[in-house]
Design a protein that fits this description.
flat, single chain, 97 residues, 39% helix, 2 helices, two-stranded antiparallel sheet
Amino acid sequence: MKLGSQTIDIGNDQSIGRRSEQQDYFGISMTPEGEPERILLVVSDGMGGHTGGANASVAAVGVFVEASQGQTGCEALDSAARAANSGVLDIAGDTDM
């Protein structure tokens, strides 16, 4: 992917280990064309095989990316992390997580 004059190769590698499901999740977000170029890479570690860990990771990444849209700086990252935490807690309250 191009970011200004730089070419960036982004990829991932996951190992499920001895667990029955992959609970780790990641997301990539780039600013829309015409705005200052930024890229956000988010990784959410699973819950060690505990019930609902995969759902929690997906939710954490999705909420973090959504909450950080249009924002920059440390305060934006802090706000997005808090929103992601709240999103995971909401899911935990709705399931047997």
